[in-house]
Amino acid sequence: MLRNPTAPISTGLLRDTEGHFRALTSYREGDAAPIVTAFADAGWFASQSGIELIDRLAELVDEARENLSGFHSDANAWKIIPLLISHTALTAPALSQLTGLTPKSALRTLG
Q1: For residues 7 and 47, is the Cβ–Cβ distance under 8 A?
Q2: What pLDDT, in 10s, does the model give residues 90-108?
Q3: Whole-angstrom Cα distance, residue 95 to residue 93?
Q4: What one-character DSSP code corresponds to residue 5?
Q5: How far apart (Å, rounded) are the C-alpha atoms in residues 18 and 58?
Q6: Which of 31, 58, 62, 91 is close enough to 26 for a disulfide, judged by CB 3.0 to 4.6 Å?
Q7: What is the torsional sign of CA 86, 88, 92, 96?
Q8: Could you read off the pLDDT of 35-49 as tens digits, one per residue?
């Protein structure tokens, strides 16, 4: 797992595959400017998309906390909110291992 996230440049390049291929052709013909520009644009797009994603994830955490407002502050559900954002899939065994909850409590908390 990476300590620092990397911007997925490929996402930006895939927005305009024809332009990317034209830039590669230009590069093969000796003109590097179009490919440099394509990578710079793709990097900018990837970084902006990452910022938007982080902002949306923060909103989702806030929404989850709002939904839990009726629960006691030491409820297990409060403990797993950050894990729901940082893990693409969270099973009861994984939750048990990450938090020290019993498997039964982990399953109940996910529910």
Answers
A1: yes
A2: 889 988 998 888 989 888 8
A3: 5
A4: -
A5: 35
A6: 31
A7: negative
A8: 999 999 999 998 888
